[in-house]
């Protein structure tokens, strides 16, 4: 009888373990993101122009920047916050923030008049993101043969990428739908 009991005990334990393991596994599976590292970079487009954020004008655009302007660096030195992910296939999850006049602004996407627009809002990027977030982009290599350039896919609307659009003299930062198998140079960015 004693032997039988200990055999039962042995049987029970793995089940407990199994349960715990599952719970832990479920938590891991959820798309919670936690910040792993931060890169400090400028973002350049295919014309070697730098992305400059001007919160006062509520605009972000790629511009020709002189070395002198770059040193003062208002609104062009980005922090690229890289998050750990449980689903690496989509690309590295990143969020962007930028300092302007001692204030921090983060990039996010919002629907405005039926169109997705890129906005910069005052505030900090969170250390942890529990689920989906309108500040997360997936960093992917631009093409398989071009590993130095990237494109950034909006996490909440797949197939939408950061790009620029000519608007008068402005090369404005926008979200743009990528048609399948198309190589769109306006989405190409180097860090």
From TrEMBL:
<protein>
    <recommendedName>
        <fullName>Interleukin-18</fullName>
    </recommendedName>
</protein>
<dbReference type="GO" id="GO:0006955">
    <property type="term" value="P:immune response"/>
</dbReference>
<keyword id="KW-0202">Cytokine</keyword>
<dbReference type="InterPro" id="IPR015529">
    <property type="entry name" value="IL-18"/>
</dbReference>
<comment type="similarity">
    <text>Belongs to the IL-1 family.</text>
</comment>
<dbReference type="GO" id="GO:0005737">
    <property type="term" value="C:cytoplasm"/>
</dbReference>
<dbReference type="GO" id="GO:0006954">
    <property type="term" value="P:inflammatory response"/>
</dbReference>
<dbReference type="GO" id="GO:0005615">
    <property type="term" value="C:extracellular space"/>
</dbReference>
<dbReference type="InterPro" id="IPR000975">
    <property type="entry name" value="IL-1_fam"/>
</dbReference>
<keyword id="KW-0963">Cytoplasm</keyword>
<dbReference type="GO" id="GO:0071222">
    <property type="term" value="P:cellular response to lipopolysaccharide"/>
</dbReference>
<dbReference type="GO" id="GO:0001819">
    <property type="term" value="P:positive regulation of cytokine production"/>
</dbReference>
<keyword id="KW-0964">Secreted</keyword>
<dbReference type="InterPro" id="IPR008996">
    <property type="entry name" value="IL1/FGF"/>
</dbReference>
<dbReference type="GO" id="GO:0019221">
    <property type="term" value="P:cytokine-mediated signaling pathway"/>
</dbReference>
<comment type="subunit">
    <text>Forms a ternary complex with ligand-binding receptor subunit IL18R1 and signaling receptor subunit IL18RAP at the plasma membrane. Mature IL18 first binds to IL18R1 forming a low affinity binary complex, which then interacts with IL18RAP to form a high affinity ternary complex that signals inside the cell. Interacts with cargo receptor TMED10; the interaction mediates the translocation from the cytoplasm into the ERGIC (endoplasmic reticulum-Golgi intermediate compartment) and thereby secretion.</text>
</comment>
<dbReference type="GO" id="GO:0005125">
    <property type="term" value="F:cytokine activity"/>
</dbReference>
